[in-house]
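Anyone have tokens for Insecticyanin-B? Sequence:
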Amino acid sequence: MIRLTLLVIFVASASAVSVIFEDGPCPQFRPMSDFDFNSYGGTWYEIAKFPNPSEEGDKAKCTLIEYFVKDFRGKMKFTHVVDGVRKYIEGDLTQVYPGYGKIMYTYTFGGKSKNTYLYVMDTDYKNYAVAFSCRYFKDNDKHQLLSWILSRNKVLEGNALAAVDKFLSANSKLINRSYYVQNEHTDEACKARTTEEITEFFKMYQTNPNLVD
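Reply: yep, here.
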């Protein structure tokens, strides 16, 4: 029954390959409280995501996020594979408010730095996490929704999957599960011929100077 739920989470996402935009400013939401930043550190596998420019829509596979955390700060490395190329980006981490799951990423590229924010909405630290973010494009009066389902393993199943399903059901007005596209962590999906730095993230901010995270 729990394995069937995984199909339910993603069944509507086969054609959901566009970046998710909605009208107006970002909705009101809060990250989880009683958040332990140090326990959140370590390696996370991306199980599913809302398509986004940093991952070239829905093309990125074999996505891995590594956090190196000490107290309220740390480092991160994000990698994925697109068309046989392993791409990566590295940055600094800051827990914005002690006890809350709002994390600031600071990326530097070409001598310029940019801050962006990730909101951990739910996690048990050992098995799963659900993260969310929103970007407001002032010039167009639209916001972009982003969300990720993460796991400590390449497969999300059992009680961890049930916990994610329960959270998404309880927060369906904020996070529409039909927008998720499933990632792949097979040997074939993770094959890469070469490695290069991710630049899509910076291009988005260069072309949208009034973007608000």
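Residues 200 and 206 are 10 Å apart (CA to CA).
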